[in-house]
Amino acid sequence: MATWRNSGLPRRLILRLALLLFACADVAYAQTANTCLDCHSVQDPPRRVTEEQFARDIHSQKGLNCASCHGGDPTKADLDAMSKAAGFRGKIERSQIPALCGKCHADGAYMRQYNPSLRTDQLSQYKTSVHGKLLEKGDTKVAVCTDCHGVHDLRPVSDTRSKVHPLNVAQTCARCHADAAYMKAYSIPTDQFEKYSTSVHHQAMAARGDLSAPTCTTCHGNHGAAPPGVDSVQNVCSKCHVFQDQMYEKSSHKAAFQSAGLPGCVVCHGNHGITHPTDAKLGTGPAATCMQCHSPGDTCDLARVEMLSGLTRLDSAIKDADHTLSVAESSGMEVSAARLEEDQARDALTKARVTIHSFRKELVDHDIQEGLKIAEKNMLAGKAALADRDYRRRGLGWALVFIFATVIGLFLYIRQIERNAPKT
Ligand code: HEC
Ligand code: HEC
Ligand code: HEC
Ligand code: HEC
Ligand code: HEC
Ligand code: HEC
Ligand code: HEC
Ligand code: HEC
Ligand code: HEC
Are residues 372 and 314 in contact, defined by beta-carbon separation less than 8 angstroms? Predict the structure, then answer.
């Protein structure tokens, strides 16, 4: 009986199959083997790179390995892995990092294979930034790609743990910009983070998780980081504050500030420590911004006084009407229609505060009058409700007197009848 054992053909086939299997396994091993990690996961920092760390890296997840950036051959054991012959380039100097990352990230054709929607302008943008320009001149203290993104556990932007996620950006920049010792050689302030932490913008972002509020890179750009110039500050703010911007466009401040080299919105609001403005900003106290340029009694100052008193008048008209409506309401009167109109009066006040940015009293006054009309109407409605209440109270009083008198009358009448009844 011919078995597979004594048949020459199948035996050779099996041998070949086995060899093929070995070869496949070898290729598979070669593809997944990472001798770099074998050695580097047990080294001391900064040479330690562990498997868990690298597994979190977007590059590792996309199938790239150590050699993609460092060269060398991760399938070779021992120091052969780091041989010059295998293209090993060793430690990457800070000055070389943007070029290394740009090798792939500025190559549109290469990046499209992975993610066609990813931008490929990071390196070209970086070269226009203050960071990039100084690096070019040999200053390696400026931010390079890895300072903002990290290395070896580099996460995609959308990951909330990424150093460049909007919630984490300010901390990432602060590592250098809030470090007075590190920034000593430069002539710029180091209070940006401290001030930003007190701002309405940070509050909206950090406390309320409002990702539509700006962080450092919203105003400075991600890769082209530079301070916005006099001409572009207004554009930075107007991306979000459209209505104030439209009004400011109408003002004579715009041209006057521009020709004096003053940075628009920032003159009155600041840049990093922007706080919630109140009407006091239009006054003459410590929060005031106008008197640094205008003098008491000049035409602009008179316009200021008028605008401020308009706001104050509308504000107190709304409050007074609100008080009257509340009293009416707590006496059980129906005033819901006026309550709805109250919102319109408040909107008019908000609008007037936006219109302030035209710095034209007639435009502000238009909004104020609009609001005053509604507030006055509401006040009348509140007063009418109260009058109605008084009328009803008086009615109730008379009714009570009448009922009381009737009861007394009945009582007296019954007593009379009882007294007149014959004794038994
Ligand atoms: C057999 C262990 C071993 C293997 C395998 C190995 N390395 Fe190394 N690596 C070392 C040691 C030890 C040093 C320090 C050598 C020195 O100072 O000359 C080093 C240095 C380096 C440095 C330079 C660090 C510095 O501060 O100068 C880099 C980068 C590096 N290895 C990357 C790799 C990569 C990438 C691979 C895989 C392709 C790899 N290594 C494979 C042990 C290893
Ligand atoms: C996306 C590119 C990239 C990948 C992938 C990568 N590295 Fe690096 N690696 C760098 C850069 C850039 C630096 C320099 C970091 C710096 O100076 O801020 C570096 C630094 C190092 C250093 C030297 C640290 C020091 O300060 O002396 C070692 C060692 C190293 N890498 C090993 C590895 C190993 C091992 C792997 C794979 C597990 C790997 N790298 C994967 C880009 C990469
Ligand atoms: C000053 C900090 C900083 C530096 C330096 C920096 N980046 Fe970025 N990068 C960011 C921020 C912040 C984002 C997130 C943008 C967002 O929220 O959409 C980002 C996003 C990215 C993205 C995702 C796609 C995109 O453009 O939004 C890539 C890729 C990238 N950076 C690569 C690089 C490379 C390559 C370099 C070096 C040439 C570099 N970055 C230097 C801060 C930086
Ligand atoms: C060998 C090519 C290569 C090199 C070198 C390289 N990258 Fe990447 N990078 C990629 C690829 C591929 C992806 C994945 C893109 C995808 O699929 O979304 C990626 C993804 C990223 C992302 C995530 C983008 C996102 O979706 O938010 C960032 C950030 C990034 N790389 C930064 C860097 C930095 C910083 C360096 C230099 C230290 C660098 N890369 C070096 C190829 C490379
Ligand atoms: C590794 C340290 C480091 C990190 C991180 C860093 N920077 Fe810088 N940055 C510098 C240094 C150093 C300068 C040069 C100072 C100068 O301009 O004289 C600079 C300059 C700047 C300037 C120009 C200032 C001027 O008026 O000349 C801006 C704007 C800036 N950085 C914004 C940012 C933003 C935004 C981030 C975070 C996304 C950031 N930087 C992260 C080190 C850093
Ligand atoms: C709302 C927009 C905005 C935000 C948010 C913002 N900046 Fe600025 N930043 C500006 C403007 C505008 C200027 C300069 C224009 C001026 O005041 O003349 C500036 C100036 C700078 C400068 C130059 C030196 C200086 O202080 O004048 C640095 C550095 C800087 N910012 C870093 C940062 C950092 C770091 C953060 C985050 C913690 C940040 N900025 C957040 C708008 C912003
Ligand atoms: C990315 C959008 C964005 C940019 C850019 C931006 N802001 Fe804001 N701003 C916001 C958000 C969101 C709030 C919070 C509104 C809130 O608290 O409801 C806010 C709040 C404010 C407030 C307080 C408003 C209030 O009623 O308390 C002022 C003032 C302000 N920003 C001025 C500026 C100035 C000046 C600039 C330019 C230097 C600027 N903003 C840039 C989004 C932005
Ligand atoms: C000449 C000073 C001045 C300039 C320039 C200025 N503002 Fe204002 N801004 C004010 C005053 C005053 C208020 C407070 C109004 C109030 O509450 O009575 C205010 C209020 C605000 C508010 C709070 C919301 C509101 O409307 O009450 C925002 C947001 C704002 N300004 C944004 C901007 C933006 C954006 C620019 C640039 C396009 C700008 N401001 C330019 C003086 C200025
Ligand atoms: C940085 C200086 C500066 C600040 C701060 C400033 N102004 Fe002015 N203001 C000017 C200049 C310059 C003009 C233009 C004068 C002219 O055209 O003759 C002007 C014009 C005006 C005008 C006339 C507008 C017109 O179209 O007729 C008014 C009103 C005015 N400012 C009110 C204010 C108020 C209110 C504030 C405070 C919220 C303020 N200004 C803050 C410098 C300033």
Answer: yes
Residue 150 CA: nearest ligand 4 atom is: 35
Contact 34, 74 (CB under 8 A): yes
Is the preceding omega at residue 98 within 30 degrees of 0, hence cis? no
For ligand 5, atom 14, the nearest C-alpha belongs to: 142
- Ligand 3 geometric centre to CA of 339 (Å): 50
Q: Where are the domains of the chain?
A: 166-219, 299-391
72, 36 in Cβ contact below 8 A? yes
Return the CA Rg of the chain. 39
pTM (two decimals): 0.91
98 C-alpha vs ligand 1 centroid, how far in Å? 21
* Ligand 8 lining (C-beta closer than 6 Å): 234, 237-238, 241, 244-245, 248, 253, 264-265, 267-269, 277-279, 281-282, 289, 311, 353-354, 356-357
Residue with the bigger pLDDT between 220 and 79: it is: 220
- Specify the pLDDT at position 402: 94
Please enumerate in sequence order all residues whose Cβ is within 8 A of that of 225, keeping only pairs 6 or more positions apart, or say none: 129, 130, 131, 143, 217
Give the closest ligand to the alpha carbon of residue 222. Answer: 3
User: Domain 299-391 belongs to what topology?
Assistant: Butyryl-CoA Dehydrogenase, subunit A; domain 3 (1.20.140)
Q: What is the mean pLDDT of residues 387-397?
A: 91
Whose alpha carbon is nearest atom 32 of ligand 6? 192
- Tens of pLDDT, residue by residue over 313-334, are 999 999 999 999 999 999 999 9
CA–CA dist 391, 397 (Å, integer): 10
CA of 206 to the centre of ligand 5 (A): 22
Inter-residue long-range contacts of 216-222, CB under 8 Å, 24+ positions, other chains counted: 216/169, 216/170, 216/173, 216/192, 217/164, 217/169, 217/173, 218/166, 219/271, 221/125, 221/129, 222/122, 222/125, 222/164
The most distant pair of C-alpha atoms in the chain lies apart, rounded to whole Å, by: 147
Q: Which amino acid is at 397?
A: G
- Mean of pLDDT over the chain: 92
Query: For a substitution probing ligand 8, which of 243, 245, 265, 318 has the most ligand atoms within 8 Å of its CB?
Result: 265
pLDDT per residue over 4-18, tens digit each?
444 445 566 555 655
Cα 16 versus chain centre, distance: 64
Question: Tokens in use for 178?
Answer: 């809030």
Round to whole Å and give the CA distance between 94 and 148.
13
| Alpha-helix residue ranges (DSSP H) falling in 115-251 | 122-128, 130-136, 145-149, 169-177, 192-197, 200-202, 216-220, 230-238, 242-250
